[in-house]
Write a structure and sequence with these properties.
Length: 433
């Protein structure tokens, strides 16, 4: 049995299954055997559906053969959804439907293996998930289970979400690829809502090709969709490439910043690498406070019942209470400011690509705080972002490099990322402790 059969290119796997050169049962066995090796140490899964309960649809859809994980905030028909909690309100809750994105990829032949662990209500509280690259380091918080599952080779794809840096940062820490599309590009129906303005559905994967395969199936379609009437073509004009690396954007060391700029310069070849601060009038300093206020205020609305209970962590309650007490006028001012910043970004960043750090350093030790990074800027502005495991720290641990485009340029960014990182990730050593 090929122990990596389930991790192959989705297009190739699908081809061999449709031609009946391999059997779907072989793919499932490969997947479940891999999970069995080290899940007891990695703890990436909240719930794994028993293999005997999975029945192949015999689909000839383009995602037939794909085994994937789903962040524990997405409704699914065949597995409990806990919203990252262990309290009695949510644990074991089964939806009577699939979230919209899940129904789309399932209809294309994909198989849901289970739910990946996430932070409490996908906010800040860490889980017991371990970083497969180094068990002493954190895997991140919100989408940590998905990043750990992909890094371990349990699955090739995990459906995730980002409200600040929830995809990019765990992907950086775990040495995998994380893609946050343009805001609204993947449907949010049937997903826990923590903010109306910022929540973005995305994908963590083992290759840009596999992420792209899922994205093109799951994205909203139709030229009349209100968010995407001007969706960008991959055939753009002259593209300007800039970097967002420095004290305005991150808290990385001079050595990490220098390495990132050096690698970015080599990647783009003869194209001049410009400083984003010299090319735009965006107010990044004010955007940090804006993001925090909007996040807290909207979270306090969606979790208002939980904030009245004693079933949530002190950190979450403190953040939510800050949002609850934020004056409505101040919230509306911040919302107006953000919409203005998005309009500036749409105008000034047209045909632009930005390179930034996905995290300011390697994953910190378990229990230590994350360093400040730039991810919330791209989330706030609704820009597509893909984190590639290109950099490494002095200790040879992973640091991601992000490629950011302008709103609607998702297909272009994926094609560019595929050229910059055409291979699959290297998997963590999955030998049991």
């Amino acid at each position: 049995m090929n122990s990596e059969l389930h991790l192959q290119s989705i297009s190739e796997l699908n081809h061999f299954l449709v031609k009946k050169e391999i059997d779907f049962e072989e793919v499932l066995i490969s997947c479940y055997e891999r999970i069995q090796v080290n899940e007891s140490e990695v703890r990436a899964w909240k719930y794994v559906i028993p293999k005997e309960e999975l029945v192949s649809s015999g689909s000839d859809g383009p995602l037939f053969g794909l085994c994937l994980g789903v962040k524990d905030i997405f409704a699914t028909m065949d597995g409990p959804t806990s919203m990252g909690t262990d309290n009695g309100t949510w644990t074991g809750t089964k939806g009577g439907f699939d979230a919209r994105i899940i129904s789309k990829i399932r209809a294309a032949g994909a198989t849901i293996i289970g739910k990946n662990k996430t932070a409490e209500f996908a906010v800040h509280e860490p889980t017991d998930t371990r970083n497969p690259r180094n068990y002493l380091l954190t895997p991140g918080t919100s989408s940590s289970g998905g990043a750990a599952a992909v890094a371990s080779g349990h699955v090739s794809i995990s459906i995730s979400s980002q409200t600040a840096g929830s995809i990019a940062r765990p992907s950086s820490y775990c040495g995998v690829i994380g893609f946050k599309p343009s805001f609204g590009e993947l449907p949010r129906t049937g997903v826990l809502k923590t903010t109306e303005t910022l929540d973005t559905v995305g994908i963590i994967g083992n290759s840009v090709e596999n992420i792209s395969s899922v994205f093109e199936i799951a994205r909203v379609q139709g030229s009349n969709h209100p968010l995407h009437m001007n969706r960008a073509s991959t055939r753009l004009g002259s593209v300007k490439i800039m970097h967002a690396i420095g004290p305005t954007f991150d808290t990385a060391s001079p050595a990490t910043r220098g390495n990132a700029i050096s690698v970015a310069t080599k990647l783009i070849g003869d194209i001049k690498l410009l400083d984003l601060l010299d090319e735009t009038s965006l107010d990044f300093m004010s955007l940090r406070k804006c993001h925090s206020d909007i996040y807290a205020k909207e979270l306090s609305y969606f979790l208002q019942d939980e904030l009245k209970s004693n079933s949530i962590s002190e950190g979450l309650k403190e953040f939510g209470m800050y949002g609850r007490d934020l004056p409505d006028k101040e919230y509306r001012n911040q919302l107006n400011f953000l919409m203005a910043q998005r309009r500036i970004a749409d105008f000034e960043l047209k045909n632009c690509v930005i390179i930034a750090l996905s995290a300011s350093d390697e994953a910190p030790k378990i229990g230590a705080k994350d360093l400040i990074d730039a991810n919330l800027f791209w989330t706030s502005l609704g820009l597509p972002q893909i984190s590639l495991p290109i950099l490494s720290s002095k200790s040879n641990n992973a640091i991601g490099l992000s490629i950011i485009g302008f709103r609607g340029s998702d297909s272009y960014i994926l094609e560019l990322a595929k050229k910059l990182y055409p291979s699959n990730i290297n998997y963590a050593d999955i030998k049991s402790l």
